[in-house]
Amino acid sequence: MHPSDQKGQCLICFAPLDDDCALFSLLYHPPICQNCLHRFEATSGNFSVSKKPLAILYHYNEFFKKVLFNYKGRDDYALKDAFLANHLSRLKKQYASHLVVIAPSSEPDNSRRGFCPNLAIARTFTNDIFTGITKKHFYKQTSQIRRELVKDALKIECGDRLWGRKVLIFDDVITSGSTIKAMIGLIMPYQPESVEILVLASSHPARFAPDKKRSFHYRLLAALNIKRCKRLD
Ligand SMILES: [Zn+2]
Q1: Where would you tag: which of 3, 41, 47, 48 has the fewest CB atoms within 10 A of its CB?
Q2: pLDDT tens digits, one per residue of 2-57
Q3: How far is the CA of 59 from the centre of ligand 1 (A)?
Q4: What span, in angstroms and rounded, lies between the C-alpha atoms of 35 and 95?
Q5: Ligand 1 center to residue 12 CA distance, Å?
Q6: How many CB atoms are closer than 10 A to CB 110?
Q7: What is the CA(1)–ligand 1 centre distance, in A?
Q8: What was the pLDDT predicted at 23?
Q9: Cβ–Cβ contacts within 10 Å for residue 149, how many?
């Protein structure tokens, strides 16, 4: 039994929540304390993968890494409620009409721990979930399998559910983006209305920042600047 199954304790550090007088805590009653909330380090800026908007909530710092390890490696199911504590009400509204597509995880690991980590977190903000993208065979992305081969290691079933839907791909951590790119490749043939991505954390969020030199605004500003320079000549 998780020590914080006794109500009123922070899911992460087990500190009593009764002492928490912050306005956010009084309004939303998050299951973690203010101290732990602040140790999730928020990212800022716009991100994208394969030209699809990507929301990255946190930096993959030591705190996040430890909480994720306790959740996935030590099978602490109660921590499913810890990651989105700060975002839950917004996500419920923002993605109320989306179909949430879960990034595939290792079946042997899920069997051992008795739950699918991404699925358990997604269920905290939606009931409209698609789990039809799976791994063809067991592999760990950190193993010698080259990242670009990930696309050949995934398959999709029951993709008809994606037709005309607003799709949100959900994953816990984005590293190279190869899994997300492979998922987009499997999803697009079913012509969803839109595709967005939500991930909890990245160790290098800047890697997914839009390429300014290619963006419309950058090219527009560059063109205007050239015209102004010509006029000054
Ligand atoms: Zn805490």
Answers
A1: 3
A2: 544 456 899 999 998 876 666 666 666 789 998 999 999 999 889 999 999 999 99
A3: 18
A4: 28
A5: 5
A6: 16
A7: 18
A8: 63
A9: 11
Residues 50, 142: Cα–Cα separation, whole Å: 22
Q: 164 CA distance to ligand 1 centroid (A)?
A: 41
CA distances from 140 to 70, 105, 146, 180 (A): 19, 9, 10, 15
CB within 5 A of ion ligand 1: which residues? 10, 12-13, 15, 33, 36
How far is the centre of ligand 1, averaged over its atoms, from the C-alpha of 165 (Å)?
38
Q: From the CA of 17, how far away is ligand 1's center (Å)?
A: 8
Question: Residue 228 corresponds to which amino acid?
Answer: R
For the entire predicted model, the pTM comes to 0.83
**Average pLDDT of every residue of the chain:** 86
Tokens of 34: 């203010």
Give yes or no for a contact between 95 and 124, defined as CB atoms under 8 angstroms apart.
no
Q: How far apart are CA 104 and CA 120, in angstroms?
A: 13
Give all domains of the chain, ordered by start, each with its CATH number. Answer: 44-226 (3.40.50)
